[in-house]
Amino acid sequence: MGETERQPGAGAASVDAEEIAKFSAMAEAWWDPEGKFRPLHRFNPVRLAFIRDRLCAHFGRDPLAENPLKGLKLLDVGCGGGLLSEPLARLGAEVTGLDAAEKNIRIASLHAAEAGLNIDYRHGSVEALAESGGRFDAVMNMEVVEHVADVESFLSASAALVRPGGLMILATLNRTPKAFLLAIVGAEYLLRWLPRGTHDWRRFLRPSELARALRQADMEVTEMTGVAYNPLTDSWRLAPRDLDVNYMLVAARPEAAGKG
Amino acid sequence: MAQDEAAPKTGSRDAEVLVAGGGMVGLAFAVALAEAGLEVVVVDHMDPAQFREEAFDGRSSAIARGSQQALEVLGLWQDMLPAAAPILDIRISDGRLGTLRRGGASALHLHFASEDVAQDTPEAGAAPRPLGYIVENTAIRRAGLDRVRDLKTLDFRAPAQLAGVTRGSGGVEARLADGSVIKARLLVAADGRRSAQREAAGIKVMEIDYGQTAIVATVAHSRPHHGVAHEHFLPSGPFALLPMTDAPGERKEGEKGETVHRSSLVWTEKRHLVAAMMAVDDAAFAAELQRRFGDSLGRLSLWGGRRWSYPLSLLHAERYIDTRLALIGDAAHGIHPIAGQGLNLGLRDVAALAECIVDARRLGLDIGSATVLERYQRWRRFDNMALIAATDSLNRLFSNDLPPVRLLRDLGLAAVNRVPPLKRFFMRHAMGLVGDLPRLVKGEAL
Question: Which of A108, A120, A251, B260 lies 20 to 30 Å from A99, alpha-carbon distance?
Answer without folding.
Answer: A251
